[in-house]
Design goal:
Elements: E1 4-8, E2 14-18, E3 27-30, E4 36-37, E5 54-56, E6 62-64, E7 73-74, E8 80-85, E9 88-93, E10 102-105, E11 116-118, E12 129-131, H1 139-145, H2 151-156, H3 158-165
Parallel strand pairs: 7-10
Antiparallel strand pairs: 1-2, 2-10, 3-9, 4-6, 5-6, 8-9, 11-12
Length: 172
């Protein structure tokens, strides 16, 4: 966590901020996937565990995000993405990030399901509504995000993703 810190955000609640300049493509932090939510180990609201702190990953697995990644806010113009490498998930920079800049992630990247939230990101590109399902994004935005899709997502939604790759210069 030496590259980031958690502080109050203008987007929502707490956010994650860069301690130093971060280069495009740089690995920023490792995600702690140790808390898996199951029927035998459900969320415990009395301990501050809520569904909006969860990440839904391959094969329907539900992970309760830990700090600091739990505090990465959504933006319709994000600067980070998540990629799994050798079974471990990491946060990477989509572009150069300045020191003290808030790290933001588009919750729709690798997203599936039917969650919908009001967006407060404040970006000029703000869509106003977050439909958590990647395939609900406008096709142009889907194409923009193709390089940031995780391999598990591409594998699980192969036919839908292949349809997006058609007529683009981006290759899987």
């Amino acid at each position: 966590m030496d590259k980031v810190y958690v502080a109050v955000s203008t987007i929502h609640g707490n956010g994650v901020f860069a301690r130093c300049a971060i280069q495009e493509g740089q690995r920023i932090l490792m995600i702690d996937d140790s808390r898996i939510v199951t029927d035998d180990a459900p969320l415990r609201p009395e301990n501050g565990e809520y569904e909006h702190h969860c990440d839904y990953v391959e094969k329907g697995k539900v992970i309760l995000m830990q700090e600091p990644e739990r505090s990465i806010n959504h933006s319709c113009d994000p600067n980070v993405y998540i990629r799994q490498v050798a079974g471990v998930r990491y946060v990477y920079a989509m572009r150069a990030i300045h020191a003290e800049e808030e790290l933001t992630f588009d919750y729709c990247i690798n997203g599936y399901g039917d969650g919908v939230w009001h967006c407060t990101c404040g970006s000029p590109q703000c869509r106003k509504t977050i439909h958590i399902d990647f395939f609900q994004l406008p096709r142009e935005k889907q194409r923009e995000y193709l390089p940031y899709l995780d391999t598990w997502f591409i594998r699980e939604f192969k036919k839908k993703v292949e349809e997006i790759y058609k007529n683009t210069s981006v290759k899987p």
